[in-house]
Amino acid sequence: MDHHLPVMEIIPEVKELLGKKNTLILQAPPGAGKSTVLPLELLNEPWLNGKKIIMLEPRRLAARSVAIRMAAQLGEHNGETIGYRVRFENKTSPSTKLEVVTEGILTRKLQNDNTLEDVGMVIFDEFHERSLHADLAFTLCREIQQILREDLRILIMSATLNMDQLSNALPDTPTVHSKGRQFPVRIEYLPQETNQSIATQMANAVKKIISKEEGDILAFLPGASEINQTIELLNIPNIKVLPLYGDLPFQKQQEAINPNLEGLRKVILATSIAETSLTIEGIKVVVDSGLSRSPRFNPVTGFTRLETVPVTLDAADQRAGRAGRTSPGVCYRLWHKASTQHLLPNRKPEILEADLASMMLELTLWGVQDVHKLSWITPPPTGAVNQALDLLIKLKAIKSGKITEHGKSIANLPTHPRIAHMLIEAESHDLLVLATDLAAILEERDPLGWGHGAAIADRLQALRQFRENELRENRRAFERIEKLAFPWRKIFKTPVDNDDASVEDIGFLLAAAWPERIAKQQTNDPCKFKLSSGRVAKLPDHDPLVIEKWLVIAQLDAGINEGKIFLASPINPASLENFITEKEVLSWDKQNETLIARKERRIGEIIVETSPLNHYPQEEKIKVLCQAVQADGERLLPWDQKEVAMFQARVQCLRIWRPEEGWPDISTKTLINNPEPWLGIYLGDVKKKTDFQRLDLLTILQGIIPWELSQKIDTLAPSKLQVPTGSMLQLTYQQDGAPPILAVRLQEMFGQAETPAINEGQTKVLLHLLSPGYKPVQVTQDLKSFWNNTYPEVRKELRVRYKKHYWPENPWEAEAVRGVKRRS
Predict the structure, then answer these.
(1) Which of 168, 335, 635, 789 has a CA between 20 and 30 Å from the CA of residue 803?
(2) Quick one: how many helices (H) and strands (E) in the chain?
(3) What region does 197 belong to: left with phi over 0, alpha with psi -120 to 50, or beta?
(4) pLDDT digit string (tens) for 71-84?
(5) Around Cβ 591, how many Cβ atoms within 10 Å?
């Protein structure tokens, strides 16, 4: 054991605090020895009472490497005192006292023994990565600790931590800081041409740097595809260029991590897997592309997509730190120095951006009814929680908020609930041999790529050809798939099958896993398919699957308007019966402006068959019609009828003029917002827009006014006023309560001194005095002033223009006339 590692300085403090407290936070930079030294130092602490330690690592490669390194320090092999367990691989024994685990292994152990009876301590390593499994396992461990096992120790270890979040979640938990062992790292900025691919940028940078600097180079790229592209561009004599990413075979990973046996200088092209935990000897130079690839789950679409995003500042600092583990080093960043200030300070917890189906299945199995009542460091988003629960209901894993027996079977399989459900369904339909191959293909990256068409059957055939040694291309991809298929066959005790598989059986199994991705071809475009979720996705032009009417889509991107189909299989329409539901539909067809009443046989949003619905509840019909009015009522109802608009204006004026009397608001906007109380009883015979238009809207509106108020309308706000000639002339009201307008020829007002008034004399009308040709002469609310001051001038003009008409000098005593009256 290396007794010079910085973590040795704080081990006495850690031991002392863990003797008093059951939870502790340790912050230690990379290279301090926290992952490989501290756990060994705690193995014999008295508070363990002879129980084992479980250490959770967020990555499989790190879990294996850390366990191997600790076992080597004890002079043992894995599976003795130190062991590890990852998905489909168990290197432990009854004598193992320290297990390094990942991939939900701890969660599975918690479900099988919810007191962790044989465990004295759980260590959460690299907690800053905030993986979903780590957050879930931590929350469950805290539940056990608080309710059943106060003696259970929890140690959170991290290179960098968001202390504010942890302090809020664990307010009384002490924190120990280790200085770490870090040599100075010089930061250089080497921005590249942005119009070049990431692989080209990295290859060009490495070629420039390799002659300037000494030591091995660790270069960070977002994913395996960029790594492989960069390898093709780097052909440097006496330099070993090696990849390092999660899906790489273990021997290849070790080749990158361990010193080169021939003493050659190494250039290691790695994903973010190499940021922490792994010890890679000889690294003096880091080249950072500044990018990482992360899964992002969209609860609206139900799709997870990998996105290439800028690294966070803490990750950039950790990457740079890899150059200073053993000696001073240098980090070249392939971006402008000014861009660093725009990086986010910390990475987002995976729980905020992940598909939560597996987590919600585990919590339901745990007995949780409300996830928000648990002690989360970061609570899960409600939208993603609801999306996950909805899926689990469709997969028959939960019912009425509780886990079903089928759900327990799903939870026992180490895979996503979709794949687990598919495997269990396959077992009951004698399709397990096919399903084990299909599960492996679906869990791995596409071995053929988009250019080979979207048919999953082609991938399955190629896998079986690979097993028969008949395939020469893409062998590495199919090696990975077969490596997954083998343990599935072992779990279900199924034989290898290399015969041709039924395309329709493939479609049936995919539909079990992705019921919302059953898709029907669109009549207007054979490349487009409507999914049962309601979205539309498109096949590449000329894809052989365009001849199919029905598909099940296993892989597509979310898209903005429509997604791209990457992997799919045809399905026999006869196999869809189990997915079809019957629904009685009563709705308003806005396009055709008519009521729809029909029975639908449908798969989600796909209508398979319809028939007329002759009998339906009247109250449901009225509800639908009122919703149509709310959405489009200004067009549907005859508001433009003159009598209707005038009645509304009269009542609205009284509502403003006489607020104490409680006149109702019958403005169009208010009535449309809540149509059922005033309109519902008149909709019995309405089925289309013309029926709406035939409604007697004036009578309906009059019925809204209380009886005692309706008796006063004609008195307070008459529709017409009588003028001195005896004519009954229309008043024009405004809904804003402005004085109503009386447009009248000036001659009909001779002999009247006062301006007419309504509303019990409180509101004078606004007179629009007109010439005999109905042209405006004057607008006034003061008739007396008009006669006295303005009329003499108006008279002079009108006498010239309308010579045959009567224009008396004294309008006060003149007789009002309707038309021509000869002057005397």
Answers:
(1) 789
(2) 28, 33
(3) beta
(4) 999 999 999 999 99
(5) 5
